Amino acid sequence: MRSIICELLNIKYPIVQGGMIWCSGWELAAAVSNAGGLGVIGSGSMYPDILRSEIQKCKAATDKPFAVNVPLLYPDLEAHIAIIIEEKVPIVITSAGNPATYTARFKEAGLTVIHVVANVKFAQKAESAGVDAIVAEGFEAGGHNGREETTTLCLIPLIKQHVQIPIIAAGGIGSGAAMAAVLCLGADGVQMGSRFAATHESSAHLNFKEEIVRAGDGETALTLKEITPVRLLKNAFYQQVQLAYENGADKNQLTALLGRGRAKKGMFEGDLIEGELEIGQVSAQINGIMRARDVVEETMAECLMVLQKTNRAYNFD
Fold first, then answer.
1. Which one of 25, 133, 166, 173 is most buried, counting C-beta atoms within 10 A?
2. E strand or H helix that includes residue 39
3. How many angstroms separate the CA atoms of 142 and 282, rounded?
4. Distance, CA of 304 to CA of 135 (rounded, Å)
5. Which SS3 state, helix, strand or coil, does residue 169 take?
6. Rounded distance between C-alpha atoms, residue 283 and residue 150, angstroms
7. Angle in degrees, CA 219, 221, 223, rounded to 5
8. pTM
9. Ramachandran angles phi, psi of 165, nearest 5°
């Protein structure tokens, strides 16, 4: 399958791996890129020297394009930007900030720029800023999320009406059937996060991967909107948050409860009790830990099968 996203990113399949904190290191990024998708290093949990090392290791492990995801609220943002440009990373995916601030700088350095949005307003702002494509992320997605709670099913066709640049759909996509659905809605490709978090190459702790596999229907929630909306598994830490809400906690109290390093504790160190376990609703569909290559290949095979089956089933000629 070829699409405008494949042409733009010079990849075989229109599948982008999410740049998840504590999950998306060089090993996962290289594996996805080698399988024909776009691997992404998640820089949001990395010090600058670690990011440089991860980029260099990824270069050594693949000759295919890969990207770095950069949250624009990161404290060492300037250092990260400088490293990405110095290391000649071909693609950058920005999120959680104003794309107009840095897009021109990246473009001048020859990078392809993608920005993550969750509503029409920011999709239009990203297009005006000169980005090459957007990731439109629905409410189903894991980790930090949009406040509007717009589902992917509604978000993709809505944004499609208002921008001309390519759209990569994200949120709730963990299978080829879901990929086929959003392509029919107007997306040019997909970004998958949760499905890649539970792969052998993911840098997440095994405890977290196994918890993803165990997760069932309704076992994630979007919370902490007063700080930054985040979707996570309903573990003991989540119950502490709920109790704080019931007791009328304000933003400062919620911030104190969250503290520092909660996501690292849960996702990277494997503390399933006190850690923040960021994952999407699609976790309920994940039944095993797989190789990243198998995720890419099975997703593409199922997508093509579903599109062909649908075409046969609804042939109006």
1. 173
2. strand 39-42
3. 9
4. 22
5. strand
6. 19
7. 155
8. 0.94
9. -80, 160
CATH code at 11-203+283-313? 3.20.20.70
How far is Cα 279 from Cα 212, in angstroms, rounded to an integer? 8
What type of residue is 82? A
For 154-210, the DSSP string reads HHHHHHHTT--S-EEEESS--SHHHHHHHHHTT-SEEEE-HHHHTBTT--S-HHHHH
DSSP-assigned letters across all residues of 246-259: HTT--HHHHHHHH-
Residue keyed to tokens 């996570």: 232
State which amino acid sits at residue 232: L
C-alpha 3/C-alpha 191 separation (Å) is 14
Q: What residue has token string 């959680």? A: 96
**How many CB atoms sit inside 10 A of residue 244's CB?**
17
Q: Are 295 and 195 in contact (CB under 8 A)?
A: yes
Task: With beta carbons less than 8 A apart as the criterion, state whether 31 and 39 touch.
Answer: yes
Distance of alpha carbon 13 from alpha carbon 65, whole angstroms: 12
Per-residue pLDDT 10s for the chain (317 aa) are 678 999 999 999 999 999 999 999 999 999 999 999 999 999 988 999 999 999 999 999 999 999 999 998 888 899 999 999 999 999 999 998 899 999 999 999 999 999 999 999 999 999 999 999 999 999 999 988 878 889 999 999 999 999 999 999 999 999 999 999 999 999 999 999 999 999 999 999 999 999 999 999 999 999 999 888 899 999 999 999 999 999 999 999 999 999 888 999 999 999 999 999 999 999 999 999 999 999 999 999 999 999 988 877 666 55
**126: its two tokens:** 């990203």
CA 208, CA 116: separation in Å to the nearest integer? 25
Beta bridge partners of 140: none
Whole-number Å distance between alpha carbons of 196 and 291: 9
Q: Could you tell me how many helices (H) and strands (E) the chain has, helices first?
A: 14, 11
Instruction: Residue 295: name the closest of 93, 36, 9 by CA.
Output: 36
